[in-house]
Design brief:
Cytochrome-c3 Hydrogenase, Chain A, domain 2; five-stranded parallel sheet; Rossmann fold; binds iron/sulfur cluster; 2 domains
Length: 287
């Protein structure tokens, strides 16, 4: 069993909906039990030290455990953060008596690396949507503001597919921390977030002959209905969701760009085709 000698992992939940945890709990292969108890790569698994949703202790005992982690496991754990970090006011989100952002920074300072699970932890996500009164930001930005040099690997998505987290974790367990060139401009592992949805979309033949669906529920490419697949990097067409059963576009819903920085504002309102000017701006931002 990996529980005694695996890589220590601390999972901290900030301003989010717990959807990223739920997505991971729905992982079918490996399932959650495999993830927690088995070797993920030969000789290596994980030891989950803290996860408020999964662990037994609650209330004061759980908070005391969280307080002890940076002191007693400094330099030994990977910190996974789920949810955005409110910085607008110290009362916009606390865990125990401590503001979420301060807790996340303290945990990150003593971590080997930070895995930002989901678009909220990666870039602010929905909690950071305009007008963002809580001043929500992602972990990369928080660490920049606090001057903390611990590496951050982003696993965006709203929520991320469980495979994207597992593949990121397995890559780190097998090969160690990624070199800068292994991350893309948005801080994601290139081998996990490889290519645009548009390139592997089953409706691409319709796009290529300009056969666009005029209404929801119709055949054809969803571009005129606001699909952001041409601007979104994710492996949804290959992996699909719920154990490979279905995914947004196959179900007839346009991609809303949930894995991209500045989601949701950059692509809102969702069900509207971008103007040519907006498209050019989006391409420029993506380099
Ligand atoms: S549905 Fe979206 S991702 Fe698929 S081909 Fe059309 S624009 Fe591209
Ligand atoms: S298709 Fe687009 S909106 Fe849907 S899960 Fe994938 S990246 Fe997110």
């Amino acid at each position: 069993m990996a529980t005694e000698k695996g890589q220590k992992v601390v999972w901290f939940q900030a301003a989010g909906c717990t959807g990223c945890s739920i997505s991971l709990m729905n992982s079918s292969y490996p399932d959650l039990v495999n993830l927690l108890l088995d070797e993920l790569v030969p000789g290596k698994g994980i030891t989950l030290l803290f996860h408020a949703t999964l662990m037994g202790p609650t209330g004061r005992p759980a908070l005391e455990l969280l307080d002890r982690v940076p002191r007693e496991a400094a330099g030994q754990y990977v910190l996974v953060v789920e949810g955005a970090l409110p910085t607008g006011h110290e009362n916009f989100g606390r865990v125990g008596e401590v503001p979420m952002a301060a807790r996340a920074a303290e945990l990150a300072r003593k971590a080997i690396a930070v895995v930002a699970m989901g678009s909220c932890a990666s870039y602010g996500g929905i909690p950071a949507g305009a007008p963002n009164p809580a001043g929500c930001i992602g972990m990369g930005e928080l660490l920049r503001q606090e001057g903390i040099g611990v590496p951050v690997i982003n696993v965006p998505g709203c929520p991320p597919h469980p495979r994207w987290f597992v593949e990121t974790l397995v890559t780190v367990l097998a090969r160690g921390l990624p070199a800068p060139e292994e991350l893309d401009d948005a801080g994601r592992l290139r081998n996990v977030y490889s290519g645009l949805i548009h390139e592997h979309c089953p409706r691409r033949p319709d796009f290529d002959v300009a056969r666009f669906a005029p209404y929801f529920g119709e055949q054809g490419c969803l571009y005129e209905l606001g699909c952001r697949g041409p601007f979104t990097n994710a492996a949804c067409p290959e992996h699909a969701w719920n154990g490979g059963v279905n995914w947004c576009i196959r179900a007839g819903h346009p991609c809303i760009g949930c894995t991209e920085p500045d989601f949701p504002d950059r692509f809102s309102p969702f069900f509207r085709k971008l103007s040519l000017e907006e498209e050019l701006m989006t391409y420029r931002r993506q380099g």
